Amino acid sequence: MNTVSPHSPEPGNIDDPMPREASRALDPAEMAEKLKIWGRELGFQQLGITDTDLDAHEDYLNRWLEAGYHGEMDYMARHGTRRTRPAELEPGTLRIISVRMDYLPPEIESTRVLGQPERAYVARYALGRDYHKLIRKRLTQLAQKLQKEIGTFGFRAFVDSAPVMERALAQKAGIGWFGKNAMILNPKAGSLFFLGELYTDLPLPVDAPFERDHCGKCTRCQTWCPTGAIVDDKVIDARRCISYLTIEKHGAIPLEYRHAMGNRVFGCDDCQLVCPFTRFTRATREQDFAPRHALDRARLIDLFNWSEPEFLEHTQGSAIRRLGYERWLRNLAVGLGNAPFSDEIVSALKARLSWPSDLVREHVRWALSQQAQKRDATREAASAPLIEAGFKDIIARQST
Ligand code: B12
Ligand code: SF4
Ligand code: SF4
């Protein structure tokens, strides 16, 4: 079964059976208390518990799918009600433990890099090592800690890679509210964090959902989104979203979005960067999330010049690996087409004109046409004062 998700290079593990039965040495309230303490010790910034009722979200999801907003992400429609009914995915599930893990490394510049069109912007969640294994491991450790105290019980750990309504569960578990950009936000931490879950058969007490909507009249994310992908409050048309276009989409990037992509070559953070709550982001201390190969500020051309073996080596253990070299070049070609004119860029693009992939060649040709337009515009602008001086000279001669 394919349960691969946009951010996941790995298939989900939903076929593993849930181990059952526990001898309860703690009462459920004590278990919940311990889980919260251990959760912090294991590096989760928040942990909340909720039940399995996602009725309202089943409706929202179906409307989203009917509108076709999922584009080529067929797996979003593939699992029927198992996505919205946790006990159908994992029989016996009574409660879901939802966790938050912050991922922004310290001293990372984001808006500055977006403003430097010769540099590559890589979504901040993907700068370091892939988060799936790390979070799943910590979630398993959390469950095992409790098993040591109370004996075996049923649990399954999920991060991103299975049919799970992670945001809806997080909102219900009290982690944060659904922003207009569809992100789960916390008023004290913004939204630059991952979500993960433990499905369990333990009858734990549930936390209060996060009811308050702190967006108010703000619409910054909606007005700022470069491609107009936030089509309604909390609703993303993925087909327009740069995250989808650069990570999920196979084949050509539609022409209408190429300029808007700017230098964003893997994912997009704009609707978070403009959000007023992002200033409350707390830097992570997880070494795994530290940028590798200067991906937080690399030049587009340097990444474009990576050979395929270099791409494979530099993206080992990173979420970028799943993109593959061909789509990596595709995305970078768009970025280079959007960069200011430079002979160095033109040479690098020309060197890929005979690359054995129609997809890459077409994006390279597009980028070269953009570079040519900018070169001509630069020449025109440079010659304008000369032309003006020439006219002055003619006028001066005529009047003598
Ligand atoms: C598919 C997917 C995508 C797709 C589609 C995005 C989307 N909004 O669905 C694409 C590739 C575009 C994408 C992009 C990104 N994603 Co993504 N993605 C997912 C995935 C796998 C499923 C999301 C999903 O269920 N979509 C279906 C739609 C219907 O659900 P939804 O967008 O959450 O919409 C809900 C609201 O609209 C709500 N709703 C609608 N009306 C109303 C009204 C009210 C009153 C309320 C309360 C709610 C409500 O109901 C819907 C269903 O719950 C999850 C992991 C998972 N398994 O959950 C990660 C996940 C959502 N992604 C994540 C991230 C980090 C991103 C990016 C930031 C990555 C990047 N930097 O490029 C961008 C952000 C884009 C954005 N603004 O959403 C994180 C989000 C963490 C957080 N803080 O919220 C998740 C949870 C992965 C993880 N484990 O951490 N993603
Ligand atoms: S991730 Fe970028 S393109 Fe997608 S909704 Fe947010 S701002 Fe728009
Ligand atoms: S930018 Fe404004 S509207 Fe958008 S999520 Fe943040 S607070 Fe809400």
From TrEMBL:
Q: What assembly does the database describe for this protein?
A: Monomer.
Active site at 160
Instruction: Write out the residues that bind cob(II)alamin.
Output: 83, 160, 181, 184, 195, 243, 268-269
Describe the reaction catalysed, as an equation: epoxyqueuosine(34) in tRNA + AH2 = queuosine(34) in tRNA + A + H2O
Q: Which Gene3D superfamilies match?
A: 3.30.70.20
Q: Which residue range or ranges hold the 4Fe-4S ferredoxin-type domain?
A: 206-235
Keywords of the record? 4Fe-4S, Cobalamin, Cobalt, Cytoplasm, Iron, Iron-sulfur, Metal-binding, Oxidoreductase, Queuosine biosynthesis, tRNA processing
Cofactors, names only: [4Fe-4S] cluster; cob(II)alamin
HAMAP family assigned to the protein according to its UniProt record, in alphabetical order = QueG
Q: Which family does it belong to?
A: Belongs to the QueG family.
Quote a single Gene Ontology cellular component term.
Answer: cytoplasm
Name of the protein this chain belongs to: Epoxyqueuosine reductase
- Which intervals of the chain are annotated as region Disordered? 1-21
Cellular compartments annotated = Cytoplasm
The root-end lineage is: Bacteria, Pseudomonadati, Pseudomonadota, Gammaproteobacteria, Oceanospirillales
What are the binding positions for [4Fe-4S] cluster 1 in this chain?
215, 218, 221, 275
Sum up the protein's function in the record's words: Catalyzes the conversion of epoxyqueuosine (oQ) to queuosine (Q), which is a hypermodified base found in the wobble positions of tRNA(Asp), tRNA(Asn), tRNA(His) and tRNA(Tyr).
Q: Which SUPFAM superfamilies match?
A: 4Fe-4S ferredoxins (SSF54862)
Q: Which InterPro entries match?
A: 4Fe4S_Fe-S-bd, 4Fe4S_Fe_S_CS, QueG, QueG_DUF1730
What GO terms in the biological process aspect are recorded for it? tRNA queuosine(34) biosynthetic process
Task: Say where the protein is mainly found.
Answer: cytoplasm
User: Where along this sequence does the record place binding of [4Fe-4S] cluster 2?
Assistant: 225, 241, 268, 271
NCBIfam families in the cross-refs? tRNA epoxyqueuosine(34) reductase QueG (TIGR00276)
The entry's free-text remark on the cofactor is: Binds 2 [4Fe-4S] clusters per monomer.
